[in-house]
Each structure stands twice: as C-alpha cells, then as structure tokens.
Amino acid sequence: MTTPAPQERFTGLAEPYARYRPGFPPAAYDFIAEFAGLATGALVLDVGFGTGISAQPLAERGWQVIGIEPNDDMLRTARQTLPSKLGIRLIQAAAEQVPLPDASADAIVAAQAFHWFRPTAALAEFHRLLKPGGSLFLMWYERADGDPFNDAYTAAIHRHGEGAADLERQRRLAGTVLLQAPGWDAACRHEFTHEQRLDEEGVVGRARSISYGPKSEAGLAALAADLKAAFQHYHQGGTVAMKYITTLYAARRPER
What we know:
The chain contains 10 helices and 7 strands. It is of the alpha/beta class. A 7-stranded mixed beta sheet has the order 3-2-1-4-5-7-6, with helices on both faces.
C-alpha cells in the first residue's frame, strides 16, 4: 500500500475530525497569551489548521487568526462549521511555503500538526513569518498512559491501525526539535492535563478521525467492536473520560 502524502492523509476524515476530536485546555491558551504578550488584534497564524479546533479559542481571545491548511476536505469543513463572526481567514498552503510577507505575524501556533511538516524547512518559514520577538508554539495532546480505559482504547488502535504505534512515538518526539533549534530564544516545554467525555458513538467516532486507522470496512468494523466492548466495560452513566496530556513547546524569534 502506498502511504499518502501528509496533506492527503485526512481526506475523507474531516467530518469525524471536527465532530469528535478534543480541544486543548484553557491553561494552554493562557500560557500562549502570557508567553507571547499578545494584545487584542494581534495576528496569529494557525498552521496545520485542520477544521479549526485549535484556532477558535485563539480568535475568541480577540486575536486576528489566519488558518493555513493544505487539505481540501479540512478547509471545506472549516468553512461550513466555524462561526463567521470570528473572522478567521483561511489560506490553502503548506507549512513550509506560506504566501504571507516576512515579519507579518505576532505568533504562530501549530496544534496537532508539526509532526506532518518537514521540520527544518517549517521552522525556517516560521522564523521568516514572525516579527522580531514573535512567538512560536507547537502543541499536541496525547492520551494519558496508565488509565484503564485509555489503555484499552490504545490497545485496540494498535491492534487494528496501520503503523499506529510508530506514528504515535514519532508524534510524541516531534516538538523536541524546537528545544535545540538554532535561531530561537527562550525555548521551553510545558504540560497540561485535561479530559474529554465521550459516549459510545463518540468513542468510535474519535477513533475514526485518526489518519492511521484501518481503511477497510472489515477493519473498521473490528476496531469498532473492540472499542464498544471497552466502552461497555468502563463507562459510568453512559460516558467515559478520555484523559489527555497536552504538551506545548514554545520559543521566540530573537529581537535582532
């Protein structure tokens, strides 16, 4: 089987992605605001925008947001689901080649996305786009290990998915490049905990939003059966709590 290009991996998955993926914890956005010192009206680029899950809280804080996303399906769903009052502008482009002027952004956020980019080229492009002193944030949520339901969910994904364990390992390490990258100041890493309440439909839908899930109907059915069994074992009052750790890497473009 040919592995699809990163910009195509989510084709056909935008609807479950928008519906079932979690957001990020408010504490992460509080950190972004404090670290970057963003005033009302500051320009923030959300690169790897997806369906806008990470961007909506940025816009709700009074910042101008431009979403950068290469995938047609993701952009189409974002245009259909995002509130127009937020004023988010969308550009179809790759992270490594954004059609915006030098030093135009106050901050850049890449949420659940940087592991799909070519890291050296993307960091160079982000450096170009940021104003001197502008801030870069790379963040991911990962399922917390050691929780019984999370562990059962992960086992099902690894059993039926396509290269799931390897991709998850790659994703967990992707942000560390910023801690040693030349040309950035004040690089740091922070963690935040949060959870997502899901019913049985939500558990199956959450799994169907991932790019490395099974592609055949038989594979999807087998995954759904395992997930429903895990849900029935662990649910309380008709929902389970999927527990997450959001890891946020931050750095600044030097003033000079």
